[in-house]
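To assess whether the prediction recovers the assembly geometry, we first specified each molecular entity separately, as shown.
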Amino acid sequence: MRAASSPGPGTRPAVKTPPARSAGAARSKGTLRAMRAARALAIHLLLGLIAALVLLPFIMMLLGTFREHVDIIRRGPLALPASLGFANYRTVLFDHHFLRYYANSFWLTAPPVALSLVFAIMSAFAFSVMQFPGKNLLLLGVVGLGVMVASEFIMIPLFQLANSLGLVNTFTGVNMPNLAMSACFSTLVIRSFFMGLPRELLDSALVDGAGSWQALWQVYVPIARPAIVTCGALTTVWTWNTYIIPLVLLHDPAKAPLPLALALFQGQYVANVPLIMTGATLTALPMILVYLVFQPRIAWGLTQGAIK
Amino acid sequence: MSRHWSRGILPYLYIAPTVVSTLVFVIYPFLANFYYSVVQWDGFGPKRFVGLANFAELSRDPRFWAALATNLIYFVYIVVIPIVLGLLIASVIGRAKVRGLRAYQTIYFIPQVVAPIALGVIFRWVYAPLFGIVNGLLQAVGLRHLARPWLGAPETATTAVGIIGTWAWFGFCVILFVAGIQKIDEHLYEAAKIDGAGAVRQFWHITLPDLRFEVVVALIMATVQSLGGYIFSVVRVTTNGAYGTRPVGLYAYQLAFVEGRVGYASAVMLVLTALIMGIAALGRMLGEGREAAP
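The predicted structure of the complete assembly is given in tokenized form:
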């Protein structure tokens, strides 16, 4: 089956000398084709080399999780693991509390992302189909600015604010700014999607007796699903990977999400490479999976995110 | 039919969750930075208004200028080198039809979705003095004498951190530019060839102007990362700012949360904020009006 669908090198007639028409024309056609094939090969070698360079650190990380530290000392960093045991995963998840950090990361990602989508759907609807005083000011001055502000800009006052609200060392303190920033980003993306929908869509829903709330959730949201899913995937990746806000607000290690916990873990166990690589794998893998599932939407968003 | 929404509080109810949460948890802290930057404050006691004294101190602070210079080095490694290399490779590949570009894109974008902290942790091992990957490779090819503690010496640490950024961005730029070149109208190149323009002139007069938008996207994204939270996280987890690797953001963090100089830290952060937002705004102006390729 497999051999038939991918012919081996000897079975492809195109590679062999083409049947002679006039000898010269055949040769030039053949060389042209050979040149094109060589060029394609060179391009793929180049792109493949880059891919290998990009993947190499991740492959080393993954292989490292199956080794023991003494093995790295004895056989060097480049040796392959002797066996594929998951002992390091067990140690890191249970003895070093990464299972708890998973739970922390979940509570620091799922609720703010889900709520931010609801917030964004609502505000995108108002900002696209309704007219009201102050609309442009609120759109540019609050939502637009909210998208441009990065966590590091606000980390110092955010600590003071959380402190005065009693939100230091709470998930809410971290979730609120992440939720707001995600809601702003998603508002702009979903709004531009809503703006592209014909006005009749809304009017016919209203003629049918729907209120604006039903029109939004029963007509607009189902159509805008691709945009909403893209926003959800992107903000999930961003929120999961945040480090600065948890660093500033969560001083209790038991509340740390994975990136913060990983940084602390490395500081404590700097000598044990396999355990640290296991921690890095546990932190990185979920978002790589989310990314692979939502390709190419995330890829699109990563580039559009720049101009947000 | 929907006109009556113009009046009343209905639109405000729809936008309230987003607008209120943003005002409280994003805009207020953002504006508070301005206020903090003109006071002297340890973060807990009373604030003392000092006018622009923090900014005057900043202009004479060798630690601030050293941090800014470090950011400039990161800018070269994270922004300049990946973009130049990306343009070079993309123009070599040119308009040749590349099968499986999407598969390459999938791989090249992976560093963008992994937490910078995890990247830093991986590269701690890559650069480790004993049993590190780079030193292991050097030993394997008989260049043992070149092995060194890459992150643990002032001569190499900043470069080593910068190369993490080059690694993360380089493939991204290649894909962005290759996909952009594929969209350029073939007739432009044919006309240029008829006019006798060589490969270099074609690059300057057709490829580069038409890739303007893609270059701007890469420029904004990478610039923000070379100055902002990305480099902050990577540095914090690799060297914590030692050996001359400290960027401005980490300096501000340490001023505020280690040295307890919240007012001065806010002034430093404000300068960084202005820098990042200014560059992003400039980039947006340059790249107005088109969508990026992928």
